[in-house]
Amino acid sequence: MDGIHDLGGKNGFGTVDTSSGKLPLKSWEQRVLSMVNGSFGAGLIGNVDQFRHAIERIDPISYLSDGYFGRWLGGLETLLVERGVITIEDVNVAVRGLGGEISRVAARPSSSPDRITYPPAKFHGMRALTEPPLYAVGQKVTTALHGHSGHTRLPQYASGKEGTIVAWHQGWVYPDTNAHGHGENPEHLYTVCFSGELLWGDSAEPGTIVHIDLFEPYLSPVETGDTENHG
């Protein structure tokens, strides 16, 4: 899904500050973490892919302004409204009670959400596959040039780019369908290596390489003799 969350490679956001190290969670962040874990345990969040997609759909300004657990809270509120546990007015009343502005409520629930019963979530997403992988380590591939309204793990900056398979991780739950209750549909997962110059042109730092874990449906082979410019 193309959206404000897909910030990789975009200019204007400054450098990543890593000087602060690990900080203890604030009390409100601890409460958000507990609510999210409790919602998973109660079956109100179907799986991690559904939760990620809910976070992607929150108000763009809130996404940039509210911090990590603020985004979690907006995603959780979105799903709880869609599940019928609370209403958006409940959220608005709580915000007013805390002196906040309704225009800054992060939750953006769908007016016609899918009423899907998700199977119990499993501890991890690795799954056995009977079909062999299409690609081998060392093979050149091109990523899909697409965007859709649903969840995907193919970042926008790496769409339509040529890279090289450097690792195969067997079968994993496919997020693009799992996020929407359309089944796990496991797919082969690979690590693909891209050059920074190919991704970002001459502005890339010299010698930069990027490794991205990508699912098989995102990839197509680069045929021998293919001279097309994928940048």
Précis, in short:
The chain is about 30% helix and about 15% strand.
What labels describe this entry?
about 230 residues, alpha+beta, Cyclin A, domain 1, SH3 type barrels, 2 domains, 6-stranded antiparallel beta sheet, 6 strands, disordered C terminus
Give an overview in words.
With 231 residues, the chain is α+β, with helices and mostly antiparallel strands. It folds into two domains: 27-104, Orthogonal Bundle (Cyclin A, domain 1), CATH 1.10.472.20; 126-221, Roll (SH3 type barrels). It has seven helices and six strands. It has helices at residues 27-41, 48-56, 60-65, 67-82, 88-97, 175-178, 196-200, and strands spanning 126-127, 140-143, 162-172, 187-195, 209-215, 219-221. Strands 1, 2, 3, 4, 5 and 6 form a six-stranded antiparallel beta sheet that branches. α1 packs parallel to α4 and α2 (48-56) packs across α4 (67-82). The longest helix is centred in the N-terminal third of the chain and has 16 residues, at 67-82. It is globular. It starts with 26 loop residues before the first helix and ends in a 10-residue tail after the last strand. Residues 227-231 have low confidence and may be disordered.
